Amino acid sequence: MGRxxxxxxxxxxxxxxxxxxxxxxxxxxxxxxxLLAGCGGDTPSPKATGDATSHETETPPPAATEASPKTxxxxxxxxxxxxxxxxxxxxxxxxxxxxxxxxxxxxxxxGIYHVGNRDIIHSTLTQPLTYRPSxxxxxxxxxxxxxxxxxxxxxxxxxxxxxxxxxDPVDSExxxxxxxxxxKLYEVRGDSHVDRRGxxxxxxFEATDELTMTEHWRRPNADALVHRAxxxxxxxxxRVVEAQGVLDGTYAAADGTTEDVYSVQELPFGSGSGPYVxxxxxxxxxxxxxxxxxxxxxxADDGFVEGGPYIDAWETRVIDYSYGGARGPFLxxxxxxxxxxxxxxxxxxxxxxxVSVSEMPSGGLSLLGMDGxxxxxxxxxxxxxxxxxYEGFIEAIRxxxxxxxxxxxDLLPHFQGLSQEQLQEWQRYEPEEALALWTAADxxxxxxxxxxxxxAQPLEQRIGEFVSQSLGEVLGxxxxxxxxxxxxxxxxxxxxxxxxxxxxxxxxSGTGEAGGTTGVLQDSLVYYDPQGxxxxxxxxxxxxSPRPEVEADALTLTAMLQAQEQEMDFDTRVELLTDVxxxxxxxxxxFLQLPVSQVQHFAFSSRLRDYAPDDWATPYALRRESMWxxxx
Length: 632
Description:
Elements: H1 6-9, H2 18-23, E1 27-29, E2 65-66, E3 96-101, H3 118-124, E4 129-132, E5 137-140, E6 143-150, E7 153-158, H4 172-189, E8 202-209, E9 212-217, H5 224-229, H6 238-244, E10 246-252, E11 258-263, E12 276-282, E13 285-290, E14 313-318, H7 327-331, E15 337-341, E16 355-361, E17 367-370, H8 378-386, H9 390-397, E18 402-403, H10 420-423, H11 431-440, E19 449-454, H12 458-475, E20 478-483, E21 506-509, H13 522-525, H14 533-538, H15 548-566, H16 570-586, E22 591-593, E23 596-597, E24 599-605, E25 608-609, E26 628-629
Parallel strand pairs: 1-16, 3-14, 19-20, 19-21
Antiparallel strand pairs: 2-5, 4-5, 6-7, 7-9, 8-9, 10-11, 12-13, 13-14, 15-24, 16-24, 17-21, 17-22, 18-23, 25-26
Helix pairs in contact: 8-11, 15-16
């Protein structure tokens, strides 16, 4: 069966191609050996670049730790405090970083929200460490070192000499309090952005001595270090929280004891120990300014420098997405970071000396979810998988080139055990076999039409149109697109604008154009996890419990997911993850992966240097203290 001519016709009138944009000199690849940061003004510096991997610091960064190929939790030995030396990079110090965000924050307590508040939390609070997923690299911040002494014990060495902004010491009691309050807040509030997977394996956080804090676990967790890099684990001053916080509720422990739990959504002065303090926070934006008594970061580490951040202040504007959002101010030179550039925007960023566009692998997701009650027979799911014209999809939907997608994100290459060629063993257009599988499949609920839910996002609608047409032509079915106003990952919270949710067979989730990662593998695997989005697909609207074959498969996958999460040997874990991915693809489980864009683009001002472009597809970018600004 050939491709329908209108697959290609969707590209007519497009003005962007990857070759055209690269030829215009408007973009540099983040993976290149030297990433030029644009044509900034002259500086007295040696070779000023925005290299994503090599940056000049006062001393080499030996403590930056790549996750060992033999262990998922490398050990870093605390280093003695060195004698301060003259700053050879004083020319980098100063300036104001100009940022934007689409809305005010919803609160500043790191144990509750993470939306719209990174400009405050990442600047005024100290985190244990940071993580670069693209390189599997950890760099210590508030910690001087850590050691996984056995599969159930993680010991942290806290950086000496740190103080909260009110002068109180940062010690093991404060760190144990900061970590331990997360589960209690989660319990008493009943809502939180905090990922409970980061603490649900922990028995206790113990202040062992003044600068040593020990985690005691119920079961191993290979992602623990990545969880600790999240801003949720920022250090908070317990004295300030208890004296000035708001009572959220009373936590009842398993031993029968109770404890009042407080939140600090306003982050009173003295809550944090980070390099900046808040100078302004209102409906128009925020400003943070350097705290002069910030501790020295000795030795320098990846993204950190001994004398604290080079940049003096951050100014963050609130700019609504409507009416072009921040594009106008950025192109006029009023902002230093634009962020993700949509494909249709790329021509606007060409040929501008004050703009640098970085290209990196796309972390986007584009998925076709299936109702587990209706597609309980694996043959029916496999028929859908083989009825999609993947090459035609790339040609029609991915003008900058496409990649076959795996259950594990492309932004975590160290965990990816499947090649593009191997993925095509499953993601292969076989219309005749698809029809034969569909004809042979068992259907407890007869299907003569495939109704697919899509959001209002234009690209997602084009994806829905392509997939619906492909399935209809191959399987001889009628197809319909139903619309919802919100972005959907599963059935929950996504009512169609008309009709009943239980009438739907499928859902399109994600455009596949751009995306990021926290570095936690479950961010990708949650779509298939029977305890995550997979549950809400397989436990359909039509029945209260799943079909026996679906339930059996769910138990199998759950055991596989738990095994890889608890495997502390890196090489063994990669093997287990590859087995998980093969199982998902073999069973066409829950979601079918659609090809994603090969690359995504982020834009920065050319005066910003050492900004590590790949970090901007993660939550950790603003924690890079080695960023600096070329003087105007």
